[in-house]
Write a structure and sequence with these properties.
The chain is of the alpha+beta class. It contains two helices and three strands. The chain has one domain. Bound molecules: zinc ion.
């Protein structure tokens, strides 16, 4: 696995951890603009700026919670 140093700048798609480029661009998987930075801060900025990702996360969370409830209520 490639390790980047904390201070090194890279453009990433937080939705897809495998997408990482040295220059700005778009994620080939979801088409959203790559964000500069690293780790959770970049994720927060990405999420705040892209309602689509926010909506997707919401749907996933609801689905997971519903599934968990159905699993436990047996
Ligand atoms: Zn993506």
């Amino acid at each position: 696995m490639g390790k980047i140093n904390e201070s090194g700048s890279a453009y990433i798609c937080p939705m897809h951890a495998s997408i990482r480029q040295a220059s700005p661009g778009k994620c080939p998987k979801c088409g959203m603009a790559l964000v500069p930075g690293n780790g959770r801060f970049a994720l927060l900025r990405h999420m705040a700026g892209n309602w689509r990702h926010l909506a997707i996360m919401g749907v996933i969370m609801v689905a997971v919670m519903a599934a968990a409830m159905m699993m436990t209520v047996r």
